[in-house]
Amino acid sequence: MNFDDYVKDSKTWLHELCSYLGIDDEVKAGRIFRSVLHAIRDRIPTGEAIHLAAQLPIIWKGIYFHGFTLHEPVRIRHEDEWLEFIRSKDAGAEEADFPTLDHAYYAYHDVMAFLRDHISEGQYEQVAQALHSEITVPA
Q: Which Gene3D superfamilies match (predicted)?
């Protein structure tokens, strides 16, 4: 086990995510990524959540699973409700990271684009299908 490699892989993802989000603040990017990942994790079936985690770098897996419990997927039917759910996952920083639903919308789409480019196509499609049709997912 080489912890330095785990850190390097996770920081590489974070640095690349900053480009997708169009920001330089890695701390903010990390909060946004965590918020969207936790919202997805809690919205999709547990099996799909575990499959998604398998494709994350190990440190991001730990962040992803922090606070995880076996669950029924959270029922969300409308996009505004979904965006508010993402904001609720931001551990008190939602006003800084997502001051409006538009900010949450663009952050969600940027994170999904990032995931589309960093996980397998099949896993991305599984996640996209597990989200309700009212929640737009970047193609």
A: Uncharacterized conserved protein DUF2267
Tokens of 106: 């663009």
For residue 105, what are the contacts with CB-CB under 8 A and spacing of at least 6? Answer: 79, 83
Which amino acid does the sequence have at 77? R
**pLDDT for res 130:** 87
CA distance linking residue 12 with residue 4, whole number of Å: 12
What b-and-e string marks burial along 94-115, b requiring 16 or more CB atoms within 10 Å of the CB? Answer: beebbeeeebbbebbebbbebb
Which domains are seen in the chain, by residue range? 3-130 (1.10.490.110)
> Whole-model pTM?
0.93
